[in-house]
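Re: weekly structure request thread

Next one in the queue (131 aa):
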Amino acid sequence: MGPDLGYATPVAPEALSDNARAFFDRIVKALEGREVLRSIDADALTAAAETYDRWRTAVDLRHEQGLTQANRFGQELKAPWISIEEQASKQLQSWLREFGLTPSAAANLGAQGNGPPSEEDENPFNWGDED
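Done, posted below.
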């Protein structure tokens, strides 16, 4: 028998770093009750969380040590964590899109809110600025 593909809250693995666990928990909380997550999504969420951790670590290094690093000849070159940050940023954006967590992905999923649309949601002229 295959895995249960019904909607359920994925469980984070024990081995996540603090940053990765916080990201995992934040995504689960954001998507709970929207009938999007399944228990089988834990691996994908874990990969996204690990990507976030790699990106966050590289950003912290950039803030602490800057954009460049001197090589053994004294030449200033792009620091290695900059490439890690750039690559992880692209991967993270892909993961966020996968879960409908970018503005464009949310619009494509119709994730304007939970439940059926309200009268305000259905009114194309409602810009939300009336009191």
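Helices lie at 18-31, 42-65, 80-98, 103-109, 119-122. The first helix runs from residue 18 to 31.
Next request, please.
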